[in-house]
Design goal:
Helix content: 40-55%
CATH topology of the largest domain: Rossmann fold
CATH class of the largest domain: Alpha Beta
CATH superfamily of the largest domain: Vaccinia Virus protein VP39
Organism: Paenibacillus solani
Number of strands: 10
Strand order of the largest sheet: 6-2-1-7-8-10-9
Protein name: Chemotaxis protein CheR
GO molecular function: S-adenosylmethionine-dependent methyltransferase activity
Number of domains: 2
Radius of gyration: 22 Å
CATH architecture of the largest domain: 3-Layer(aba) Sandwich
InterPro entries: Bact_Chemotaxis_MeTrfase (IPR050903), CheR_C (IPR022642), CheR_MeTrfase (IPR000780), CheR_N (IPR022641), SAM-dependent_MTases_sf (IPR029063)
Oligomer: single chain
Shape: globular
Order of helices and strands: HHHHHEHEHEHEEEEHEEE
Amino acid sequence: MPSGDHTEEQLLLIEDSDSERELEQIEIELLLEGIHRFYGYDFRNYALPSLRRRIWHHVHAEGVSTISALQDKVLHERSCFERLIYNLSIPVTEMFRDPNLFLTFRKTVVPLLRTYPYIRIWHAGCSTGEEVYSMAILLHEEGLYEKSRIYATDMNSRSLQQAKEGVFDIKRMKQYTKNYLEAGGTRSFSEYYTAKYNSVIFQPFLKKNMIFAEHNLATDRSFNEFNVIFCRNVMIYFNDQLRDHVHGLFHESLSHFGILVLGAKESIHFTEYSEAYETLDRVEKIYRKIK
C-alpha cells in the first residue's frame, strides 16, 4: 500500500470524526442562536475554542450528555440559563492585576487627568470588581477621586452583585497587598478594608463614586462619554467581527484625547481604528484617542 494511503476502516473513522465535528458545530450554533433570540445575550461571535470548552464543561455540570440536551434545558429553565451565563463569562481578575500597568497609569495618565475638571472612567467587563476598587484606591491616593465617577459594567449579574458588595476572600489579600505595593501604592493596603471572618469588605468611601450596571459589549450601545476606558483581557474571547464592533463602541464612547487601556494580549493595531489612536505605552497597551 503506498505511503500516505488509508485503509477503508481508517477512512470511515475519519468520516465519522468529521461528521461529529460538524454536528457539534451545528449544536453550538443552535444553542447560541437560541440564547440570543430568547434571552438577548449574544455569544455568536465569541472565539469558538474557548466557547466550546466552556459549553462542554456545562453539559457535564448539568448532567446531560449532548449540547442539544443542554439547549433544551437552557431554553426551558431560567436557572440553567443563568448558570450557563456565569460559566461562559468566568471572572478572572485580581486587585492591581499586572501591577506595572497601574504604576505606568500613575506616571503617564494621572498627570493628564489632573487637567480635567471632571473624570469619567468606564471599566467594561469589570467581572467581580477587583480592578474597579484598585482604580478607586489609585485615584484616592492621587487626590482625584472626589472629581471622578467610575462606571463598572459586566454582562454577568452574579459577578456584578459581588462587585457592588465589595466583599472578597481574605486569603487573596497577601497577593493583593504585594500587587498594590508594586503598583506604586503609598499607604498601608489594610487601611482600605476591614477583615471579618474569612472575608474582607472594602471601605464604603471607595464605593461612593462607583456606578454598577449590566452591559453587554456584544449587543448594548454607548451610554456616556468617557475620559478613560479599561477593557482588559475581555476581547481575547471575541472573534474579529465582534472585536471590531467593540472597538467601534469604545471609539464612539471616548472623548477627544481619551485613554483606552487594553490587556497584555490585546492591541488597537490591525483594527480599523488604529490610526485614531497614539500609543502612550506600547508594553502596557495604553492608547490615546487623537481623532
